[in-house]
Amino acid sequence: MITQELNRLGFNHEDIRFARKCCLLRLSRGVYVAKHVCAVETHRPLWAGIEDSTFEAYPEYGDMRDEVTKLDAAVMARCEQQFQRRQSGSGDGTEPSDGETASSSSGTEVISHISAAIIHGLPLASPVTHQVEVVRPGINRRFANLHVRGTPIPKHHQGTIRGMRVTTLERTLVDVARAYSLEVSVAMIDDALHRHLTTPEKILTVLGQAVEKRNTKKVRRALELADGRRESPAESIAAVRFYEHGIHGMSPQVSFVIDEAGTQIRVDFCHRQARLIVEIDGLGKLYLGSGVPREELERERRREQWLRDRGWQVIRISWKELFSEAKFEEIKLAIMRSETAAAASAR
């Protein structure tokens, strides 16, 4: 919600300042979100929607997901803020944010990059920015919570979602791959391919049409590494780490038939020659399925034991370990040992 909406609900400047100490979170200048239901009755208009389940309470995880959630809320608030300006005109009292004037963004702004990815429902592997990102022709400026880029965006690279102009899915993927790390861009491309939202050919076509040519090789590298078989950002990050460490031959989402009834188990990555399985434990993975971590752990243990009994080595990588060297050196060593053993037996 924006300051204008709070004013219409009867909250003045002092009321808003008090609510920020309680149940109201400030995302940027003039942009807020209700965090939870509180005990102050006068704050009911802020969180009534949470109480009657019209919308959910602002989630807090205690990890990096909090930053992603905050950016998501800021992007949605930006869309609402711009919608209000277009509906009532720049002179309606809507509070401009981050030092801009109300007229500076009217009619020209296109949501782009990470912010557009959020609107398209793409996953953000890590909180790489706290700023809402937009494009306005000929303007390059950074405010506290807003990043304005001046790169021209062709009309056919724009669409409308929730009343806001947004870069198309393919253009968004190209822009993110050009501006951010492989772990961020590959996770988004993998997700879009996995859900059959686009194809590599369509992304390459948009890349060729873009005026900007900076980091084109980086975009192509992200496309080369992308694979729609992967099912989570954690798996995508692992694939990027394999590339960075020179590890080849890791096939994603390989299935094994475990009984005569045809029951199957699937593993995240499999290196058949080395008889090596790599499983990635992303954030919250053990809370999927049954919803009970202990049951999920037991199921994972039984799967691993089945594989080990048949001569497979299983290496698990936690979310934290994705960003360190040790596990990937262990994987490289396992593959090297298998290659050495294969060479010796061939003599």
TrEMBL record:
Q: Which Pfam families match?
A: DUF559
Instruction: Tell me which domain of life the UniProt entry assigns to the organism this sequence originates from.
Output: Bacteria
Name the segments for region: Disordered: 82-106
Q: Ranges for the DUF559 domain?
A: 267-325
- The protein's name: DUF559 domain-containing protein
Q: Which organism is it from?
A: Brevibacterium ammoniilyticum
